[in-house]
Amino acid sequence: MPLATPDFEFLQHLVAKRSGNVIAPRQQQMIEQRLQKVLVSTGLDNVDTLMTELKGTRGHTLQDRVAEAITVNETSFYRDAHLFQAMRTYFIPEAMQRNAATRTIRIWCAAGSSGQEPYSMAMVLRDHFPQLDRWNVDILVTDLSEEMLERSRNGIYSQLEVNRGLPARDLVRFFDRRGSRWQVKSELRSMLRHQRLNLIDPFPPIHAVDIVLIRNVLIYFDQPTRQSILNRIGKVLTPNGHLFIGSAETMIGMNLPYERKVIDGTVCYQT
Ligand SMILES: C[S@@+](CC[C@H](N)C(=O)[O-])C[C@H]1O[C@@H](n2cnc3c(N)ncnc32)[C@H](O)[C@@H]1O
């Protein structure tokens, strides 16, 4: 049964407050599907019971769970392949040159979803920069969704998921077969560090990072929220570090301390 308008509006408000994501009326069907998933995981009987619980004073944990369930987690390996190509040709060599003294590279995937993006970074590093074996390489993966973080930690993907963007040679080199699915080898899994982080909240202490990927998540926030997140990320970026946003995202119209550059065909931002 479709959600009643007041319930849909309540959920729009709840999601805006908990994750900052703006839900458009045309997404009502998606919300209804996600609520069904919450019913299964909570064991609640039906949407009416769920709505009553959510509106109750003890519903905070459940509210977070619903807000997390209502995120869009769409992702794929090597999404925007030119970015990973440019990591190989320019951004990683540049960071290695800059950090030769400390032999440390820090990367932050700030909305890592189920892990395809950070594992794509890890594969580039392993494949093309064997000398990094003797470096301290830190890939921090954060997301709002515990479920996505868990998927990323486990690194297990269906055939359909590995068919999306992953070259056969990487599948052979970096994955083990697990029945009908594929698991990222532990040598790559151990390169990632996972942490739940809600981008709309004040950030916990984060060590200055050389490369930040915050891709295909800004579109879900309103303009002031986007601006606040990007401002705070600027403070975490090392001097001369690089920030990357999604190919459909822009900083146009925002008052931000970044300079836009195009390097090896890839847009990046520096403070
Ligand atoms: C569409 S995915 C993008 C994944 C990946 N960066 C990519 O480009 O393929 C968006 C991710 O942002 C996360 N997200 C949404 N709102 C968030 C918030 N307030 N804080 C942290 N992560 C959030 C979602 O859980 C989801 O995993």
Secondary-structure element string: HHHHHEHEHEHHEEHEEHEEE
Structural class: alpha/beta
Strand order of the largest sheet: 6-2-1-7-8
CATH fold title of the largest domain: Rossmann fold
Task: Domain count, please report it.
Answer: 2
Q: What's the quaternary structure here? A: single chain
Distance between the termini: 49 Å
The first-level CATH class name of the largest domain: Alpha Beta
Please provide the count of β strands: 10
| Low-confidence blocks of residues | none
Bound molecules: S-adenosylmethionine
User: Superfamily at the CATH H level of the largest domain?
Assistant: Vaccinia Virus protein VP39
Anisotropy-based shape: globular
In what range is the share of β-strand residues? 15-25%
Name the average pLDDT. Answer: 95
The CATH architecture designation of the largest domain is 3-Layer(aba) Sandwich
Biggest sheet descriptor: 5 strands, parallel
The percentage helix is 40-55%
Describe the structure.
- The chain is of the alpha/beta class and 271 residues long.
- It folds into two domains: 5-69, no CATH class; 81-270, Rossmann fold (3-Layer(aba) Sandwich), CATH 3.40.50.150.
- 44% of the residues lie in helices and 20% in strands.
- S-adenosylmethionine (SAM) binds next to loops.
- It is an enzyme of class 2 (transferase).
- One of its GO terms (molecular function) is protein-glutamate O-methyltransferase activity.
Quick recap of the structure?
By secondary structure, this protein is of the alpha/beta class. It has eleven helices and ten strands.
